[in-house]
Fold:
Amino acid sequence: MEIKIENLGKVYNNNFKALQNINLSIENGMFGLLGPNGAGKSTLMRILVTLLKPSCGDVWVNGKKMSENRKEVREYLGYLPQDFRFFSKLKTWEFLDYAGALAGLKKRRERLNAVDELLEKVGLFDVRNRYANKLSGGMKRRLGIAQALIGDPKIIIVDEPTTGLDPEERIRFRNILSDLSQKEVIIILSTHIVGDISSTCGNMALLNNGQVHFQGAPQDFIGLARGKVWKTSVAFDQIKAINDAYPVISTIPSETGYELELVAPSLQGIEGENIEPNLEHAYVYFMEFVANTQLP
Amino acid sequence: MISLFQVRTVAQFESKTLLRSWFFRIFSGIAVLFIFFFNLFGMTSLGDGAWPGRLLPASCPYVNLFFLNVAQAIIAVFLSADFLGRDKKLDTTEAFYIRSISNSAYVWGKAFGILKVFLGLNLLVLAIGAVFSLIQGEMAFNLPAYLIYPLLISLPTLIFILGLSFFTMSLVRNQAVTFVLLLGYIAVSLFFLKSKLYGVWDVIGFFTPMLFSDFTGFFDIAQLVVLRMGYLVMGVALIAATIWKLPRLPQKRFFSIRMSLGVILFLVIGAGLFSRYLFVHRDKLRVREEIALLNADLDESDAGILSYDIDLVHRRNEIECHAQLQVAVNDSSSIPLVFVLNPGLKVKSIHLGVKAASFSQNHHLLKIKDETKHCKGDTLDVQIRYAGSIDENVMFMDISEEVRGEINRLDPVVAGKNHAYITPDYLLLTREAAWYPVIARNRYWTQYAFSQFKLTVTTRPDLVAISQGVANHKQPGNWEFKPEQKLNALSLVIGAYSKKELTVDSVDLQLYTHKSHQTLIENFDLLEDTIPELLKSIKNDYERKIGFRYPFNRFMVVETPIHYYGYIRMWSLATEHLMPEMVLFPENGGGTWENDFVSQAKRQKRRARRNNEELTDRGIQERVFRGLIGNNFIHPRRFFFGGREAEQRNLENWGKFMVFPMFFNYANNIDQAGFPMFNISVENYLFNRQQEQTGHFFGGLNTNDEVVIRMAGKSLSQLIEEENENTLGDVFAAKGNQLFNSMKVSLTGNEFDRFIDSLIQAYQFTNLDEVQFINEISARTKIDLKRTFDYWLNEQCLPAFLLGEIKVWEINEGNRIRYFMKVPVTNQGQVDGVINFVVREGMAGNRRGRFRRQMGGGNNDPDSQQSFPIKSGETVDIGFLLDQEPREVVVNTLLAANIPSSQRLETGKVIKDHRFNDYFEGVRQSTKKLRYKEVYEVIVDNEDEGCEVINTGESSTVKDWWANRQEGGTSVGDKKYGNLRLWNPPVKWELVVNGSYFGEYIKSAYYKRRGTGVGRIRWTCQIPESGNYGVYAYLPGSRHHFRRRRHTGDGSYYYTVFHDDGDVVRQVKSAESGDWQYLGEYYFSAGEGVVELSDKTENDIVVGDAIKWVRR
Structure:
């Protein structure tokens, strides 16, 4: 499986440029799409799942132009929308059954087996007869992933899947996705939560203001911030000045003041030691010092 | 290609969610419950309210779907508009939108899902109907109807409503607006458009005739299918258009173009179907207009057809006829001969004698050219060969388009209006079909001459042919009919009939029913041996009343398809439902309550129980049978609240199957140029003679009153000239009755009646020339009928009667006690008039009640009816000598300024004065001229100019609004006389007529429902000179306190008298009504005097009539 996005742009009716000149190449495995709120992640996702028509450029799936081959492309797709809360009056298993039938599982027995299997997998088997609307937020999200997975899609696109989930649910969710990424499928995960990507994605892109600022492996992205993340201790009265001067990632109070982690190309006026950056550090560094200057 | 699997999948889940929606559950539950109870009580005759229409073939699935369709159309609007709205609202829908499914499959899936749910609902409703109709067992179970009706009624409506709401929703994208638009559309089609434009707007099928006949199936099946298909196809087009507007990217490129082509294609087909439907109707209208022009140009003809010998072959949808006519030509001017023949029948050849003649056929007119000169008295042998079918469109040409457009509703279902049939299995031809040629003369359709007929029929061997005369069934499929008398109408019915025969009083009674309609007869299984005696007594009774014997040798009742329909004509009481010797009776009794024998039997049982009568089953059957004969053939009554169609003749106690026309219309003809006024007059005189004419009990106007109002200041000839003669039926009838009543008074007692009877019998089955008729009448009555007739036709004024106080004395005549009643009458009008009294003596016996006048009911002794001529300006006392105390005196002023024309009079207390000897019988001149008021009195009646009303215009509730809508009645100029509605009185002051009200000639009053005191009536008079005046208010009699006595009787009315020293409110108990009520004595200066009545009262209604100021 391969998705190539070429010169993709989207301008909404109110002239808002949601996406500009997006060029991405996505291969099997899990792909993380990182970016702040409003960066255009959802727009890109919606284009990728054929819900939205790009204003320019196109998407190629396995060498086929998406705009001309929606039927085929849709056959590969599994999609979990960003909002996934309101269901028509269907039971949990019926909802999956419906999705399975639309995904092309024509044989009823086969479909029901797939439904049960997925319910088991996402831990909803016990509530299979409950109306989907009556599920808790986490359960709904799990049902969402289940419906995205039914019919063995080759491209799975999940939009902000962990928003609003408690940590336990979030871990569970990540694990399901990790399991999947072992198969020959593309999983595109859009998120503004860095942790989601660091733990699972082999590849990622950073989107800001409708443009791609980075594409590559998360390790490479982290590499960008190496030597720019500092650990330091400051007195109580210094904290305000520091907060104003540097992007502070964590603030831990100590007996004499605070233990801070902050991102900066260099420190001025305070002492600190470099620490090994993680994806979150890289993201903050990137957003604070690279993205804004890089912009055309 | 659309994947069926996907359509099915979407449909399955859509219907699943719909079934779970509470909206659907609640509303369809209500609809099903309503239908269930309708079936429980209406279909099974469990209770008293059985629906009589259940007896009609296949009416059960029809009526169930008829009701359901209204409900499901509304539910469908909500559900279908909901689908797009729901898609928008539910964020989870996107998970399905990205699946590989085409937009078409998705939308069709949704549509089928909704349809599937409704299919279930339809099946449920049909199953309910099926169960109940099987339990009931009165009618044959018609399985195909259960399959056809859903396709005919539900499917097109649902698809169209679905398509329309889908599409509207996809355009406006707002669920609420879509609801309003769609529900508005349905409401407009139900309440406003109705059957306008030939019913093309009727999306619900509420006005489209869809009853099924066991004889002929559906009415105009081609047009029916075209219309319903039109809606179906349009619905499909709209659904397709929704696919095109669906907010989801299509699967394929160029999809939109293909889609729009599809939409356009369906729209074109749909539009094509609708235009075909309309064009067929438009074309019919065009033909009718052309024919009307031809008819207007027709001249009088002095040719006459002496005899017909018709050889008719019935072949599938056609007949082939060979008619041999003997035509009397009186003058050479009769050539070319012009006949009328239905334009659906094409003439093949015509021979005059042995010579072939040339001819032309222009619509219904058949012109035969003949060069030979003829002399007076010659007869011509004309042989015409023609074949074809009947064009029903050109029948009843005199009936207005408005009346033609009215639907034939059989509460609530709708039947069609067929006037003739030629189908492979069924044939029905009456005179109106012009299936045999008649002479084309001016207004040929208003009077038909008598001719001798002979008819030979060849048809399918398994069918039965029915026509007038001695039937000779030579061999299967071959019939010959020879009527004994000359006839002015010949009819032919062919169908799969079974026959029952019986001879009563030398009349051969024949009952022809559809082979499968035997259950109706089973209602009278116990009567088999008594029916002849029963019928004999009914027959004799009726003949005694009419005055002469039934003129034919046989009486046939022939069951006809439910769609068979004949209009009421202005010049005749006969309809095409009645032919000589033959009543064309609707299928299974036509689904009317009087022909619902099971319910009738129940009613009889209940009545017997209430009256503590012991009634056997046989006795009950006998009563129901009497009811059947009486209600249909002898003395029909119209349903109590039943209105009449526009322009229809307003007839009390009249029905389409009433046999009266067989005694006159099909036995006599007074041949008159122009309008058949003599026929109309004699007919109405005879008809009215045998029945009581009373005013409406609830006020309102009877026919005669309406005529009086219409004729104000106009002569009959003026009316004929100025107005559409089709609307003058009532005027003709009332005037005709008046003409004969005025002649009647020239002879004493019943002499005139006996003379008319003998005259009619002497000229039975002949064409009586008008001159001869005039001579005969004039010779006997010594009245110059010619002059009277002209005067009658051209006189503009009406007599106007004032009636004085009636007095009754108990007197000694010889050695027995008798009663003398004196009625003073003055004719204030410009012309002479006739006044008619019905006096009933003695105590009311075992009366069955006012509303339950059965056949032969009512003590309608013609001897108690007396007419008196009163000259213009004359005052007379009319004396009656009676053996018993008068119980009821009804005066009928006929055509006079008095309204209501028929009133019951109060007789007051009997004066016991045995020395009184100034008694007399009949008319005695009087010197005491009656006065409406005394010289010292000033009266302002509600009819006077001094009376004005102040309406509140309060319609605060829906109930009030509805009450306002319920208005009915007759408008006169800006005045309108409504009917007294005690259960639902009007919110505004309304005029109502009643004999118990005060008035000089028009006895009317204003009334309205109880109000807040804002609505008022004001009487303003001119006080001639200053002084003390006693003020009186007239409170109408208590007759309208007939219902809710508790609330009506004990309240008061509040009058405000404005006098010189201020104003005073006087309270008058309404219970003390029936006369002038004293409001006190006050001083008034010369000039205006005012009294007001407020609508504030403790009663339900308030009535304002007249105020009187009496000089002290």
Q: What stands out?
A: The first strand of chain A starts at residue 2 and ends at 11. Chain A touches chain B at residues 49-53, 67-68, 70-72, 74-75, 77, 79-81, 83-90, 94-95, 98-99, 101-104, 106, 132, 144, 147-148 (CB under 8 Å). Chain A has ten helices and 14 strands.
